[in-house]
Amino acid sequence: MVERRGIGDIVPHLVLWLGIAVVAFPVYLAFVASTQEAYLIANGQMSLLPGGKFLDNYYRTIFIGTSSSTREPVGTMLFNSFVMAMAISLGKIAISIISAYAIVYFRFPFRMAVFWLIFITLMLPVEVRIYPTYKIAADLSLLDSFAGLTLPLIASATATLLFRQFFMTVPDELLEASRIDGAGPIRFFKDTLLPLSRTNMAALFVILFIYGWNQYLWPLLITTRDNMQTIVIGIRKMITTSDALTEWPLVMATAMLAMLPPVAVVILMQKLFVRGLVETEK
Amino acid sequence: MANVTLRDVRKTYAGGVEAIKGISLEVGDGQFCVLVGPSGCGKSTLLRMIAGLETITGGEIDIGERVVNNIEPADRDIAMVFQNYALYPHMSVYNNMAYGLRNRGMPKAAIDKRVRDAAQTLEIGALLDRKPRQLSGGQRQRVAMGRAIVRQPKVFLFDEPLSNLDAKLRIAMRVEIRKLQRRLRTTSVYVTHDQLEAMTLADILVVMNGGVVEQIGKPIEIYRRPETTFVASFIGAPPMNLLSLGSPSIGGVSGLPAAAGVVGVRPEDLSFGGSGAPSGGLALDLQVEAVERIGAETFVYGHHANAGEILVRVPGEAAPPIGEAVTAVAPRAKLHVFTGDGRRRIDI
Amino acid sequence: MQKQSFFQSPLLPFLLIAPQVTIVLVFFYWPAIQAVWQSFLLQDAFGLSTTFVGFENYVHLLHEPGYFDAIVRTFAFSAMIALLSLSIALLLAVMADKPMRAGGIYRTLLIWPYAVAPAVAGVLWIFMLHPSLGVLARGLRALGIDWNPLLNGDHAAILVIAAATWKQISYNFLFFLAGLQSIPRSIIEAAAIDGAGPTRRFWTVVFPLLSPTVFFLIVVNIVYAFFDTFGIIDATTGGGPSKATETLVYKVYLDGLLGGNLGSSAAQSVILMVIVIALTAIQFRYVERKVTY
Known about the structure:
heterotrimer, B: alpha+beta, four-stranded antiparallel β-sheet, elongated, C: mainly alpha, MetI-like fold, two-stranded antiparallel sheet
């Protein structure tokens, strides 16, 4: 091992703890604000220690909502975000794994054309086709619906590529053994390929859940009704009203609630998260 | 119980490459047939064609009096043991063996009996709940065998099943496969590149090279009477010494037919026999270059002025010192004579 | 690209690809084609008639000073965000890579901001830097800076860059750490035996070996700064004050959806598409290089 001895060993720890403090500070502040009286914050007299309104503020946030800007309680938004994140992540995994299966394990006309068709969508993020996509969703009467919120987002070149890459590493002999054991394409997929893909699916799910939960532009376009809002959209609407009326403790409680599920996923499933992140970037 | 019959079987790939150039072969019921040859000779392709994993582009394959050319692998009534075992990594040993039976809709109780019987035969009864990754190489090999025998197929197909095992285990498993096959009396086709494995296992040995059959026969007959120089050098270890008669005055063998171009002699048939060649036999003047003693026998590498390196295999430890000039001799009966192109044996 | 063993089936593969292909055609290709087509059309003020105008929308766009400013601004933001988040992340990763028992804890405590939505990150930062109630703003005032991101364009830009950087550190940290840990210890030990001190070792041995990661992260960070800052900007500054934080993506949104200038918005979309294609191409050339490396 190449390492220095003595006080040199402390420096990395100091730097890291400083980094952690800087990174965590905005969230700490949000938490503190979410436990305080609104007027203290509005006056710019916010304490840096948690206040006593934790239960009050969170109760109001989740079940009642802010009094002025949005009329929906954040509980509804959490529900909407959850449904959207689940539908996007599970939908992406489902349609990507079957298309990767077709591309790798079958020979059919236009196989490569299909592969490129999916692959090129990497270069067409929603930002570069905002208006026409919105218009199509409107024409299909998908506005303000969960289908509209999720369907246009569940195509995934990344997930398809990932599964394709994984399938290529599965030994051919497993398919051959299955064929000799009398398993057709559907049975081979269900009995062998799906169980083998479990870890990959879980890693992908972690990444895609975060991706889905944090969607911003598309929900902004497609939802107009307050009760279809996701939490990430809702929080922005809470602060765009005139400053004096912004109920900061509730906004910060909403921010905490908006961060909690995806952050919890990262921390609790760190191994899968890291694996998913590294795999999807290959 | 079934014969496997190949009639002028051919495999041509889409690009026009001919992997199998017309092979005919008859494996009788209960026989153990070994396909042997160097890598790329087409032996694995041929096996996979029998299994139904590769399409047949010419000729016919029969299994048990039925043409199987267009029959799915699952319906050919065969079982296969793969080189890398191809065990389902997510299934227990039990399920690995039961999977094929379940797919055929066999009743649970019958499956259970077959799996347990097979496990007992292969002494893997204690491993049934384990996953493949928890097993040693030898154990995996047994499970792969188990998966084949629970099916009670007409034919076993083996694709280099022992090549991933270490040397000691390979010998043990070789003996075991042979015993098992004798007991079950199931027709078997076995692919290997290891000539020792081929010699010890085969009832019928098929030596392949470049997509064609070089020779078919009982192993010991092939050893005694190789039909081509390829077979002569491939079967038997260390390989036969081959001397081209084109070079002047080798060994003083007389009375050979005009067509003769190559003379072969196995290292074990040479000896350092005093003075002079036996009548009509071979005598080679060598300079000893290296000596390898491995206990029961000794390999002597000698250099011949015209023929190059010659290997002599003598029993025991006695050998001439390095640098000494010696004469190695072989009786006429031990010589193998081939045409100049090495494609045909000439009897003398 | 494909298996030697495969299934043959006339219908099944088409059924398997149908969902993905349908969505891709309806929600990706059709709108993208529409965008290209619309970029050649001009709609009158009431949306009653459209005429084909060729490249006129593009010409207008490139003559519009606001568009040029947005391009410069977007690239400046990207450069700042990439530079800041990469350097901070590299420093932290190098520190965390030193042999230490608590390495796992540090990773856990540093990677979670990845999961925070850009808009939420924006809200956290506007709260800290809010001119009248922000805790950090108070500090800046005390230092004599007249801090007001709601009125001062530079301050607004700093706010956006800070929030974007804060969120991106975790991602870069993770990849740097993985890159560092994949460098064989023996190479570093060999450099030590060759007499290189820790700093010299880093710049002459470690950093060159890390350069593929650096290059990859630069591309990813630029893409991130282009697109994912949308949420931060929309939640904090709305592009203002007076366009000081209006990036290319945000301008497409404002002009097209809110301003109703479809032709110009479509032309902007097409230009963005070209930029994305270029960035993706660069990224894949890198992947190729990595393979041959």
